[in-house]
Amino acid sequence: MPDLSEKAGFPNRENPIEVIDMHTGGEPLRIITGGFPHLIGDDILAKRRYMHENFDHLRQFLMLEPRGHADMYGAILVEPSLPEADIAVLFIHNEGYSTMCGHAMIALGRYAVDYGVVPVIEPVTVVNIECPCGLVRTEVSVRNGHSHSVQFLSVPSFLFGRDYMLNLPDGKQFSCDIAYGGAFYALVDARQFDLPILPSTINEIISIARQICIAVNQVVKLVHPDHNDLAFLYGAILTDGNDTDANKATTNICVFAKDQVDRSPTGSGVSARLAAQYARGQIGLQQQRQFNSVIGSQFTGKVAAITRCGEFDAIIACVGGTAHYSGQSRFWLDDGDHIGKGFKVR
After folding, report:
1. Residue 149's domain spans which residues?
2. Residues 189 and 143 reside in one and the same domain
3. CB 212 within 8 A of CB 206
């Protein structure tokens, strides 16, 4: 294993970092499969801290330009600390590190089946994935030895608070819920801002989402029963407001990290929305509905079970979708290439 410490620098041509690229509903996932340094820690949250403290330059190297872009997303496979886990993963993006990622669960389920990480069982192969937020069960549909659609059962998801009345910097008041689906989100009906969820309104959506997160962080103190490392607002989800009719599809868009836009319906966001809808009596147990993204890709979601998370009434969400492979690469830093360490324009 090459020495990829900050002092030693970056991978070279002889010892590159190897990746497989996938996307789930249009949202990218760069799976780091080789050449990455060993991450130390007794549990996955300790490994996450170790990564941040020692190898954050490699996150930037892989996620930012010229190898990535402002909306790139990645998964670093690490040694599991839970005995029942088949694989363990750290999530990386343009700003730092996520606690949960549903679109990655769908992609990693396929990857684990296709690359022999787990024994293949037809018609469904189970892959248990250890995430910073806990253990997630993925179920991969397999036919004639080939993986297809995937669904995952979330960690306990819950409505943290409802009907917060907050103000944007310009004084405009808005209402939001805050829910947890592996990460905390502000759930906001975009109709309050006369803002349709379309590719043509992305810049306005990013601006509003940024202001929403600032307003929430100024007023609301988040807590999570399991660990303080989970108690932070990950992003804002703007919806079309269709929460009451579970028989109709609903569209949402998630803006997270540093103005990063999810092209998929957002798996952890769907889990959070289902938790809020169930708490409000807007969807029943085992009632499935469709969630659409800003580009029209689709996830299915349902409340699979009822549980508790500390003092919170919670659900286990089941979210399904399809991932596809898009390529395979070997990355290194050429001699004298200071720009190639990673940069961002926005």
Report:
1. 17-153+325-341
2. no
3. no
Residue 276 forms part of a structural domain: yes
Domain identity same for 120 and 224? no
Site of tokens 């990063």: 260
CA 325/CA 232 separation, integer angstroms: 31
Determine the average pLDDT of the residues in 304-324: 98
Distance CA 296, CA 173 (A): 29
Tell me, yes or no, whether 93 and 171 share the same domain: no
pTM of the model: 0.95
> Which residue out of 101, 131, 254, 309 is catalytically annotated?
101
Residue 101 is a catalytic residue: yes
Clarify whether residues 85 and 190 are in a common domain. no
- Provide the number of structural domains found in the chain: 2
CA distance 192 to 241: 9
Indicate the Cα dihedral angle 271, 273, 279, 283, nearest 10°: -90
Helix crossing, 56-63 with 44-54: angle to 10°?
80
Question: Does 62 share its domain with 124?
Answer: yes
Does any domain span residue 229?
yes
Q: Which residues of 171-191 are buried (b: 16+ CB within 10 A; e: fewer)?
A: eeebebbbbbbbbbbbbbbbe
271/172 Cα distance (integer angstroms) = 28
User: Residue 164 pLDDT more than 60?
Assistant: yes
* Distance separating alpha carbons of residues 199 and 201, to the nearest angstrom: 5
Q: Are residues 82 and 173 in the same domain?
A: no
Q: Which of 114, 178, 102, 162 is nearest to 140 (CA)?
A: 114
Q: What is the band of 95 on the pLDDT scale with cuts at 50, 70, 90?
A: very high
Eight-state DSSP code of residue 276: H
311 and 179 share a domain?
yes
